[in-house]
Design goal:
The chain is of the alpha+beta class and 495 residues long. The chain has 13 helices and 12 strands. A hairpin with a 2-residue loop joins strand 4 and strand 5. Helix 11 packs across helix 12.
Length: 495
Amino acid sequence: MGTTRRAVMGSIAALAVMGVLVAVMVPLRSHVSIATTALVLVVPVVTGVVVGGFAAGVVGVVTGFLVYDLVFIPPYYTLSVGATENWVALGVYAAVMVLVASLVARLDAARAEAGQREQGIQRLFELTDLLIEDRPLPEVLELIVSTVHDAFGLRSVALVLPVGSKLDVVASAGEPISDAELRRVAPAPGVPTSLGAAGDGSRHDRAQTVALTATGRPVGLLRIRGAALSPHEQELLRTFTNHMALTLERAQLREQALRTELLEEVDRLQRALVGAVSHDLRTPLATIKMSASTMRNPDVEVAPEQRAELLELIDSQADRLDRLVTNLLDLSRVQAGALELRNQPIAVVDLVTEARRGLGHVMDDAEVTLRIPADLPLVDVDHLLIGQVLANLLDNAVRHAPRGTAVTVSAGRHEDGLVHVVVEDKGPGIPRAERANVFLTFTRGGASGGTGVGLAIARAFVAAHGQDIWVEDAPGGGARFIFTLPVAPVAAVVP
């Protein structure tokens, strides 16, 4: 409540208590000493001070003085005091009551100020806890304005930050800031603006612009409107703005770091893609071009067996190009989040057969050993996606396996209730330090490694099914890729 209203309420409380005490003590005044009466009349004064402050306490002192003289000092109901000791009693009462009112008022003010400071410290701790959390910049902006608006009971709060080449409101709470006020806060470049209190002269409608500065440089402006703030609230607001400026600067630096990291990743992917395309597209294209030019050259005599060999070379390199383009398209689907699973029960051996068929001539000279139990349950997967996973793993194994060695595909149900599929080769293997990166996009492995897309796609397709894929050392040397698949429900199994 306001100061005037509080004083009125305190005065009323003092008069009410005074009336009750007088009504109780008048029948007993002949049996109560004047000193005891003075002590009892302290109560209305203290009540008035506690409820309404020092002004209400003064009202209680004046009223108590008159009541003391008129009602309790003979002759009654006259201003005449009579004996000299009665004058002394009145004087002592008045002096002591004024002193008591002053002390109680100071204690009450100190208690109120301590309560405000405690509340302010509590708000500051709460704000600090909120602001030290690692939050995105838009959330930090909304948190700043809402916290100031609620903490100080303001009509409106607006946060003004540089946006491009001008200042603009990026977050607000309460009443929106008008265009005219925004022009005063954020004028055209080169036009000075003032920071401090302004308004229309009303104590309840003061506008103030507070600068947010961190590490000695301005990071923004805070425009607030509402009742005039007390000196303690002004000090608390400055502390708030210091915390907010640091938090805002940290959030901005975090956004810049994320953008920088994203740009670096995009640049890495672009350079990796250029390297992959330059090698893995140009090599088969050069082979196809050379073979076709040889057969078309009228000056070159090509024997039938040589022509068949060249045609087979063209066909295999075209298949290689087709697999590369398919992988790149699949990668774009993964990155766009456009994967849509169409699960159905299927046998693992059928998935391996489809994968080998999809690889075409790559598997002509490859020796693949299957170790899949006949009683292995069906798996519930999208067979096109998992077939691509197996195709990529087989293609990777065949390229790395030494000539004359077999690639082994095995599967079995494990204690976790899942089917584990294993693709194993006898190649050089993958060092333990590189296994964390082998499934990353455009990570090329070994001298014969392709684009680095195949394993990234394999991980994405397996993860889309909620499963895992990893690599470990094969017994006797080589790489062993393992991924899990969910078992099809019994009701879905087709006889």
